[in-house]
Design goal:
The protein has a 5-stranded antiparallel β-sheet with strand order 1-2-3-4-5, with no helix packed on it. The chain is globular and about 75 Å long. It is built from 7 helices and 12 strands. It has a domain of 187 residues: Lambda Exonuclease, Chain A (Alpha-Beta Complex). The protein is an alpha+beta fold.
C-alpha cells in the first residue's frame, strides 16, 4: 500500500499534522471533533466538512426509516386474532418506539464486520488466501460483493486515514477509512468514501467534492473520479456509485453555498449582527 508524502510531511505529537511543506499545522481534537490551523503564525479554528454539511436537512429519509422500523416491530409482535392486555400492549409499543435503535446497533455491527474484513483483505499480500468470510450471511454477501468490485476495478489504496485542509476555503476534514481515502480505481486517481448507510444521499456528492478540492490543493495531483461505496446498514447490501467528473465543479459550488449558510448561522447564534 502506497502513501502520498506530499499530504503529511510530518506527524507531530498530540494529533498535530504538518501540511503544505510544513507551512501549515492542522490540529485535531478527537474528543470535541474540532480542527485548529496554524498558518503563517496565525492560529484559528476551522469547521469540518461534516460539520458544514450539518446544515443540509437529512430528516426526511431518517424519519421515514424510523417510522418503518416501528411498523416492522408492530407487525412482528401483534398477531391477528390474539388478545393483548394493557401491560402487554405497552411493552409492544415501547419496543416499537425504540426499534430503530436496535436496528441501528445491529447495522453498525454488520458495517463494522464488513469494513474490518475489507481492510484485512486489502492488506493481505498478493497471492495470499483471502481472510475467511464472516459467518453472518448479510455480512458475508456484502464482503463477497465488495471483493468482486475491488477485483473488477483493480482497486489500489494510495492514501488512507487522510487529514485534509483547504487553504483556499479554510475547511478541514478526515477521510478516516483504513481501506482507502484516495485510491486508484480502474486506473483513475479517485476519492473513495466508504459509507455504512441506508442509501446514497445527495450530500455525499458535496462531501466528496470538498475532499477532492482539498486534496488537489494540498498535493497538486488531480482527482479524476469520486466514488461512494455503500455497505448497507440494514441488510448488508453493497453499492458503489461514481459521481461524474463533469459535476465536480457544480458539487463543490453547492458545498461552498452550504459553507456560507453555515457561517451565517454560526454568526447569528453567536449574536453577530454583521
Amino acid at each position: 500500500m502506497r502513501t502520498v508524502p506530499q499530504i503529511a510531511e510530518a506527524v507531530q505529537p498530540q494529533g498535530v499534522v504538518a501540511l503544505y511543506g510544513g507551512e501549515v499545522l492542522l490540529t485535531f481534537d478527537a474528543k470535541t471533533h474540532r480542527y485548529v490551523v496554524t498558518d503563517h503564525g496565525r492560529t484559528f479554528p476551522v469547521p469540518s466538512v461534516t460539520t458544514i454539511l450539518s446544515v443540509v436537512d437529512k430528516s426526511g429519509p431518517l424519519t421515514q426509516w424510523a417510522a418503518n422500523c416501528a411498523i416492522d416491530c408492530l407487525r412482528e409482535k401483534i398477531q391477528p386474532g390474539q388478545t393483548y392486555d394493557e401491560i402487554a400492549l405497552e411493552g409492544i409499543f415501547q419496543d416499537a418506539r425504540f426499534n430503530f435503535r436496535r436496528i441501528n446497533r445491529e447495522a453498525r455491527s454488520i458495517g463494522s464486520v464488513v469494513h474490518n474484513w475489507i481492510e484485512r483483505y486489502l492488506k493481505a499480500a498478493a497471492g495470499e488466501v483471502p481472510p475467511p468470510f464472516p459467518l453472518n450471511q448479510q455480512a458475508r454477501r456484502c464482503c463477497e460483493a465488495a471483493m468482486a468490485w475491488i477485483r473488477e476495478r483493480e482497486f489500489q489504496p494510495l492514501a488512507v486515514e487522510l487529514k485534509l485542509y483547504s487553504r483556499r476555503y479554510r475547511y478541514a476534514g478526515t477521510m478516516d477509512s483504513a481501506v482507502g481515502g484516495v485510491a486508484m480505481v480502474s486506473g483513475h486517481r479517485s476519492v473513495v468514501d466508504w459509507k455504512t448507510s441506508g442509501g446514497i444521499y445527495p450530500e455525499y456528492r458535496l462531501q466528496t467534492a470538498a475532499y477532492a478540492q482539498a486534496y488537489e490543493q494540498m498535493t497538486g495531483e488531480p482527482i479524476e473520479e469520486r466514488w461512494v461505496v455503500r455497505l448497507g446498514k440494514d441488510d448488508g447490501a453493497f453499492e458503489a456509485v461514481c459521481f461524474p467528473h463533469s459535476q465536480q465543479t457544480a458539487d463543490l459550488r453547492a458545498f461552498l453555498a452550504a459553507f456560507r449558510l453555515y457561517q451565517r448561522l454560526w454568526q447569528l447564534r453567536k449574536g453577530g449582527q454583521h
